[in-house]
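TIGR01457 family HAD-type hydrolase
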Amino acid sequence: MKQYRAFCFDLDGTVYRGKEAIPAAIKFIRTLREKQLDYFFVTNNSSKTPSQIKEALLRFGVEASEKQIYSSAFVTAKYVKEHFGQAKVFVIGQDGIRYALGQHNIHIVEENPDVVVMGIDRMITYQKLAKACLAVQNGATLIGTNEDIRVPTEAGFQPGNGSFVKLVAQVCNVEPIFLGKPSPAILEMIRQGHGYQKSEMVMIGDNYDTDILCGIRFGCDTVHVNTGAVSTEKVKEKELQPTYCVQDLSEFEL
């Protein structure tokens, strides 16, 4: 592996799988810390606050500050603030997206919104989806924190946020705006915030359609690990290839 200054990791399927750590990834991150190399965690999971993600990582033996954690919730809140200003927002989602919107002083409402923001909500109901559909049909802009159709767990795949956003979009016959990976916005935030060149950054992940395409669209090197959502066999069928394909991060020496 060439010399990078910033290692950007996906979380679920890359650093851990559900509640189980991926040992090679944990060891690799610890080595980065020992060598005083910069690393960041880039997740499409909008359900947790940076503090909650930090605590979850610590349980896997990974030390990180909140400044090293970039979620689709944060990039979505930033986008809403920049493009919709003082708009009223109806939210489907958990702690992470609500915290991020609050940090950006965005006005959250239950009725007559200008924007509908959808993040993963493990307490999703028909009523919430119906409310979102009616708001969008009345002119609200539909924004999803991410478009993941499914998420890997130790028990198998479960529905991701994208499956619910696309349900609302299909009912309303609109195209939603997605801010998480594979949009390069989240990596651009890291680049601007820390002054890296794209050539100094590398995106590491298990999901070709989110992690790897995010890096490719951003213009940095990418590493696909065969530990999560998409197998190496499937990745090798893609037209645009990652810079590296490995079984796990034990194959790399720093």
